[in-house]
């Protein structure tokens, strides 16, 4: 299987997921996540390109204050494209009190006890699109371009595969080129452009890019490689 990933450029970043799982870091957290069979391999360690090491795991209720602090430090431009008003602590508290990994799976990255990235996998709310999941991602500015965004997205994507979703999408503002490149490197393709779909404060209207990846293509390639 390792040779297959090396041949397939768009899957190569996901090689670690299948053949070299990062070591766990907390026995207590390890036991907690074992309650959820699809999350039993968390928490994990991940080394960034600059050598710093972060811990990656699903969010738990006790992360509420830490997550609020993370969002509070984001630039206004970053907050602009988030679906919820994260400037209100009540929003984050509500997330913590209503955690349901089957509906929304939040994966966070922690460095020195501080959250530095947050990604989420959202199951569709509609019956006719129950096979579709959506990935959303935001990374602290000091931790961008270090491989962390790609790592979080790959974790979320393969959680979608394990849960049986057939299609995974991402909605990305057209000008966020680095985010677009992350998804493209993992096999996502540009599917649609919604013209003048985003209102940017002080800058007018901008386009929204819809990207997607069909999980059966990845699964079929894996079967062929075995």
Characterize the structure shown.
This protein is α+β, with helices and mostly antiparallel strands and 226 residues long. The protein has one domain (2-225): Gcn5-related N-acetyltransferase (GNAT) (Aminopeptidase, 3-Layer(aba) Sandwich), CATH 3.40.630.30. 33% of the residues lie in helices and 29% in strands. It has nine helices and eight strands. The chain has an eight-stranded mixed sheet, sandwiched between helices. A hairpin with a 2-residue loop joins strand 3 (104-111) and strand 4 (114-123). The longest helix has 15 residues, at 148-162. The N and C termini lie close together (6 Å).
Uncertain runs are 1-10, 12-25
Mean pLDDT: 85
Number of strands: 8
Q: Strand order across the biggest sheet?
A: 1-2-3-4-5-6-8-7
User: Any idea how many domains?
Assistant: 1
CATH architectural group? 3-Layer(aba) Sandwich
DSSP strand content: 25-35%
Helix/strand order, N-terminal first:
HHHEEHHHEEEHEHEEH
Rg over CA atoms? 17 Å
CATH topology: Aminopeptidase
Largest sheet: 8 strands, mixed
Number of helices: 9
Distance between the termini: 6 Å
* CATH class category label: Alpha Beta
Properties at a glance:
alpha+beta, 8-stranded mixed β-sheet, 29% strand, disordered N terminus
């Amino acid at each position: 299987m390792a040779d297959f990933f090396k041949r397939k450029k768009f899957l190569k970043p996901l090689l670690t997921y299948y053949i070299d799982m990062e070591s766990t870091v907390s026995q207590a957290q390890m036991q907690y996540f074992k309650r959820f069979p699809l999350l039993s391999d968390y928490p994990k360690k991940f080394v960034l390109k600059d050598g710093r090491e972060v811990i990656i795991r699903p969010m738990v209720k006790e992360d509420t204050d830490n997550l609020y602090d993370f969002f509070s430090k984001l630039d206004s431009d970053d907050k602009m494209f988030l679906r919820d008003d994260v400037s209100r602590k009540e929003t984050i508290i509500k997330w913590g009190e209503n955690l349901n990994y089957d509906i929304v799976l939040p994966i966070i990255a922690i460095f020195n006890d501080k959250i530095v990235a947050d990604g989420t996998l959202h199951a569709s709310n509609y019956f006719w699109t129950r096979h579709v999941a959506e990935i959303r991602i935001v990374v602290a500015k000091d931790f961008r371009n270090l491989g962390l965004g790609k790592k979080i997205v790959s974790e979320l994507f393969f959680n979608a595969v394990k849960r049986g979703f057939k299609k995974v999408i991402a909605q990305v503002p057209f000008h966020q080129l680095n985010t677009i490149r992350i998804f493209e490197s993992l096999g996502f393709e540009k599917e649609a452009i919604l013209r003048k779909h985003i209102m940017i404060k002080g800058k007018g209207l901008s386009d929204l890019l819809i990207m997607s990846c069909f999980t059966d293509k990845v699964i079929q390639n894996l079967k062929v490689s075995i």
